[in-house]
């Protein structure tokens, strides 16, 4: 797999353009990355970046929210805004004949958002309702948020990206306008476009549409480094009506630019990254303790979480966690055999090309590489890096990256009255209620 070369243009305001002509189909796709996501949320205003980002497509330029949506739908286009820890991404796909409309809509969103008060109220209320519904029903989607808040209590990565039931109701239009003024600007933007167009002509259109966009109102502070924590600690989130326990177990993993990221991907594939992984085989296939068990990483500008997660009936919580810990400990110590490595290599290599087939996928990858300061070798050399990884090399990397058994953060969501004794087996326990409006417990053991 070879990443196509991009025409790179830097606009006078600092916006970086990466343009790739791909003429096979009459389509055009973009991926816009704005530096500064949830890490820019002020204390007590968690979710502000995400709320502001969502409002970008709820009315901009001459169009209100309904008219903006109609313009996208009427052209058969797709447009999405996704807030993250370090970045806000805007992605879109249109027919090539509608490239002028695409540029107009994108520039309106970035340069002329309306931030209508009524749309803000509706969006904020929906977000609060969604959080309450997740807590009341299936809380699996919130496990990572509780883990981040507990594991990174004094770091921006601990802030809930989407906010909480405590922070969201207090966010008003002045907060949104203030965040936008401070954080939206041409100097923060990386824009990749792939499709059926002439690069020189499109660059001129984008210069006209975005070149006058002023820089962000304040410098972007660097994200502080994260590091693995020592010792064990447990957060027990009481959901009194729960019949199952949902758990995350982990520590700090790797950054996106980690030199050993290919070996880590192979190692995670074996541990919990596919159906035939060690975790899923033990917890689902062999014992039937769960319907699924996985492990995952969240690499960012700094190292994000590395965690394994699953869910099980309340009365089998201890058995499931003990088995997961046994798998993790043995794997960290022994690594994998040659046959397992070969299988993982084949799996990862087979999964890679489909991730870069479409113009939208290529645009996303170009912006991602530019954001993290990586070059095309991250893609072009991926296959050889995977094939060249040795069993002992992966084992050495995993002993660095995977947490030691004595250094783990646990989050359990379930019926606390039935889980307290189980939870105490794994370390000092901090308890909170799922009805608490924040994701952060009132008190927690010091690190």
From TrEMBL:
Gene3D superfamilies documented for this protein: Metalloenzyme, LuxS/M16 peptidase-like
A GO MF label: metal ion binding
The source's domain of life comes to: Bacteria
In what residue span(s) does the Peptidase M16 N-terminal domain sit? 33-138
Taking every annotated instance into account, which residue ranges of this chain make up the domain Peptidase M16 C-terminal?
172-346
Instruction: Cite the InterPro entries for this sequence.
Output: Metalloenz_LuxS/M16, MPP/UQCRC_Complex, Pept_M16_N, Peptidase_M16_C
Task: Note the coiled coil stretches, chain numbering.
Answer: none
Pfam families from the UniProt entry: Peptidase_M16, Peptidase_M16_C
Under PANTHER family, the record lists: METALLOPROTEASE, PROCESSING PROTEASE
The name under which this protein is listed is Insulinase family protein
């Amino acid at each position: 797999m070879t990443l196509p070369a991009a025409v790179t243009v830097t606009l006078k305001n600092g916006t970086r353009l990466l343009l790739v002509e791909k003429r096979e189909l009459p389509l055009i796709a973009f991926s816009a990355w704005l530096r500064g996501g949830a890490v820019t949320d002020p204390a007590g205003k968690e979710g502000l970046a995400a709320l502001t980002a969502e409002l970008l497509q709820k009315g901009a330029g001459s169009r209100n929210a309904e008219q903006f949506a109609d313009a996208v739908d009427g052209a058969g286009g797709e447009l999405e805004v996704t807030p993250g820890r370090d970045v806000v991404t805007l992605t879109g796909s249109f027919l090539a004949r509608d490239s002028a409309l695409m540029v107009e809509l994108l520039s309106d969103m970035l340069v002329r958002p309306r931030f209508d008060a009524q749309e803000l109220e509706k969006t904020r209320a929906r977000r609060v309702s969604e959080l309450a519904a997740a807590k009341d029903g299936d809380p699996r989607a919130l496990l990572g948020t509780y883990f981040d808040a507990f594991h990174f209590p004094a770091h921006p990565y601990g802030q809930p990206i989407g906010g909480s039931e405590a922070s969201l109701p207090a966010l008003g239009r002045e907060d949104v306008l203030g965040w936008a003024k401070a954080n939206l600007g041409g100097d923060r933007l990386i824009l990749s476009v792939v499709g059926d167009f002439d690069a020189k002509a499109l660059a001129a259109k984008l210069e006209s549409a975005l070149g006058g966009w002023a820089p962000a109102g304040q410098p972007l502070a660097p994200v502080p480094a994260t590091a693995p924590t020592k010792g064990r600690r447990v957060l027990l989130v009481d959901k009194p009506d729960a019949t199952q326990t949902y758990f995350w177990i982990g520590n700090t993993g790797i950054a996106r630019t980690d030199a050993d990221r290919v070996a880590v991907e192979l190692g995670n594939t074996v541990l919990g990254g596919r159906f035939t992984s060690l975790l899923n085989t033990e917890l689902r296939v062999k014992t039937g303790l769960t319907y699924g068990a996985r492990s995952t990483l969240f690499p960012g500008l700094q190292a994000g979480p590395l965690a394994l997660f699953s869910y099980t009936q309340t009365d089998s919580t201890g058995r499931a966690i003990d088995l997961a810990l046994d798998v993790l400990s043995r794997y960290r110590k022994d690594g994998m055999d040659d046959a397992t490595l070969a299988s993982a290599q084949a799996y990862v290599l087979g999964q890679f090309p489909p991730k870069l087939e479409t113009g939208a996928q290529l645009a996303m990858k170009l912006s991602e590489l530019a954001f993290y300061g990586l070059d095309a070798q991250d893609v072009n050399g991926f296959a050889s890096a995977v094939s060249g990884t040795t069993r002992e090399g992966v084992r050495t990397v995993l002993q660095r990256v995977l947490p030691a058994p004595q250094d783990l953060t646990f989050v359990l969501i379930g019926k606390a009255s039935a889980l307290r004794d189980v939870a105490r087996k794994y370390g000092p326990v901090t308890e909170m209620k799922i009805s608490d409006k924040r994701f952060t417990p009132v008190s927690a053991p010091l690190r």
